[in-house]
Amino acid sequence: MKLKLKNVFLVYFLVSLTGLLYALLQLGQPCDCSPHLRAAAEHLRRKDLKISQLQAELGRPPPAPAQPPEPEALPTIYVVTPTYARLVQKAELVRLSQTLSLVPRLHWVVVEDAETPTPLVSALLAASGLRFTHLVALTPKGQRLREGEPGWVRPRGVEQRNRALDWLRGKETAVGGERDPPPEGARGVVYFADDDNTYSRELFEEMRGTRGVSVWPVGLVGGLRFEGPQVQGGQVVGFHTAWEPDRPFPLDMAGFAVSLPLLLSRPGAQFDPTAPRGHLESSLLSHLIDPKDLEPRASNCTRVLVWHTRTEKPKMKQEEQLQRLGRGSDPGIEV
């Protein structure tokens, strides 16, 4: 059957028109994009959002920094440290001085158990960068530990701590550092810090606001994990201790601080060199306060911020052998 040319053209035209109409109907329909293209678009959108946020932050003024209190507005902490000549003395004092250097408004009162100041301690204090006062007080022969005696037999550091109290009261002359005692009416706190303990910097801020006598626990002392006051309702009601709990103040020397005005108002308050074992702290505090008026610090005495550590006594057996052979360590090198 022969098709006419006109009919063929008509069929072609209708098919083309149908395809054109279908294409027009598909315009505006959602694009069936691949997952990779959608992820890329989302990533670009998040980038644009982050850029907008950063531009907004750059346009804001920076927040005002928190202003710490002016050091001059803080009460001064007078840290009293008795010390004596021994192989570990310099190591102990260096360690302590570097802790104290982190504390603002602090005055270090170092008292040597000696007749005259030693070059070692004098140089160490001068290099410490701390405000300091250098004193000397020789322990009387009758109060010194004898060879082989344990350290707890006789109270130690009594003469030195009392010499520091005399200086604070304007009754003693310093041999180095700042020689003038605190001015009348000065705000301050007095803390007795032995050179062999370990102190948290936070401890000193806990004691700074002391009004009378503040107290806290001491770790690794008295044969216990810690000793310290027991507190109920913000008041000291007893003491956690194993040895002579009936002492007036069963506290370690590192466990209390005294307000400077209170100390100066009681000129007779000092440490008693004849106090029985464990009563040295009580011999001072009994002149200053009643136990019920103690001020608990360190979260009501639930945190340990000072430890009664001691450096192990060095064994010098090899040194002694070399010295006998004339080959000992150079004595000119300070240790």
TrEMBL record:
Its cofactor is Mn(2+). It is found in: Golgi apparatus membrane; Membrane. UDP-alpha-D-glucuronate binds at residues 82-84, 113, 156, 161, 194-196, 308-310. Residues 313-322 have a biased composition (Basic and acidic residues). Keywords: Disulfide bond, Glycoprotein, Golgi apparatus, Manganese, Membrane, Metal-binding, Signal-anchor, Transferase, Transmembrane, Transmembrane helix. Pfam families: Glyco_transf_43. SUPFAM superfamilies: Nucleotide-diphospho-sugar transferases. Residues 313-335 are annotated as: Disordered. Pathway: Protein modification; protein glycosylation. The active site is at 281 (proton donor/acceptor). It catalyses: 3-O-(beta-D-galactosyl-(1->3)-beta-D-galactosyl-(1->4)-beta-D-xylosyl)-L-seryl-[protein] + UDP-alpha-D-glucuronate = 3-O-(beta-D-GlcA-(1->3)-beta-D-Gal-(1->3)-beta-D-Gal-(1->4)-beta-D-Xyl)-L-seryl-[protein] + UDP + H(+). This is Galactosylgalactosylxylosylprotein 3-beta-glucuronosyltransferase. The gene is B3GAT3.
